[in-house]
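Lab manual, section 2.4: Encoding a predicted structure.

Procedure: take the sequence of the chain (433 residues), apply the prediction step described in section 2.3, and record the output as structure tokens. A sample record is shown.
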Amino acid sequence: GITATLGDGASGQGGGRATTNQNTTSRNNLSSRNSTTNRTTGQQGGQGGANGSRTSIQEQTIPTEPESRLVGGRTLLVADNVANTIIVNGPPHHIELIRDLITDLDSEAQQVALSAVVGSYGIGDGLNFGIDLAQALKNTGSDFSAAGSASFGGVPSIIDPTTLGDLGAVLSANGASGNGVSLYGLLGDDFGVFVNALETETKFQTLERTVLTTRNNRVALLTSGQRIAIPSSTFTGGNNQGGINTNVEYRDVQLELEIQPLINSDNQVTLEISLVRDSVGTLRQVGDLRVPDINTESLSTSVTVRDGSAVILGGIMTTTSSDASGGIPILSRIPGIGRIFGSNDLESNESELIIMIQPRIMVSQAEIDLFRSDYSGMSKSTREAESFLPPRRSMLPSSDETKSKEVEEISSNPNIPVSEKTVPSGDVTDGKK
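Recorded output:
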């Protein structure tokens, strides 16, 4: 027998599906298969979310031990996943067949670039994200198909994307001015333009905007946040000792986004999405200490989108309360009668967490450049217009033009004596240096 080692082969990713954890409570379910979300209202008390669990995508584990198979009774195949090689021991014609098969199957692993935008939309005055989303899309002229759910009467639970057109069904729906409409949508080519318009024209505030690139069926992780100090316990000295000692624990308050793309046939990408967002809530008095609440919002879902389309997920509602004081300057601060000239109200603010993700399958450098231009805010119409323009040329003068201009300025300057007028080194004018 002949032994051959074939490298860089048989390292396919496989088509397994990941398992995601789901939270059970929700304010708005986007569809029957789309997402399960968690509503938090800042009522977690002094525990600070210590007993909560963070959702994460269960990535497939790749075995590190070599695997062997006997084929045809005479040919032994040994696959080494760590070294990415296959060892073949068998007759020469079997080795040639396996070599040809690996040549046909072996290809560069596909990558997926993910444009991810996580933001918060402030809800107030009877407005909701669905209405402002439609208005922003109308202003950008983008193609959009959507489905949504509503918690009020008169609006279908699932809006048919084929009847929306320019989302007129959402705008004119009975009860659309109330709260509770959340949209799941597929945005077309103008993702960057749409995000910019949404930030400019609505109450949408971007919390995180990034581009992640990962291999097919591998998890991409984004983590952003801070660590805050939380007092955990206090100790008061004895009779002969004074003062109070406070022990402090540091807790992570951050935004975690995990995305696992799986490339399917027909240029479709299945996205396993897991999001956990922490925020500092109100301060609570616990004994002599003021301890902050840690609010947690989480989402875990699986969606399938076309290559280059964008998925928009919403529905995680958060309510926060804050004190708002105002009044006539100086008079409102007078002890005793100041409250007559001022006001102290408790404001309740409600917001919705919005996630927008656009996957793009990367195969060539041209596709990478196209993706970068989309994310920078260049629309399809802009790219088409630029394709008819001549190549860009530098607006800076050439080196010869610069030297000629320097000679002209020196020769014509009356403030420089004739004896001091010299031509820059290396230039010749009328045969004289």
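Check your result against the sample. The chain has two domains: 2-10+63-105, 35-60+111-386.
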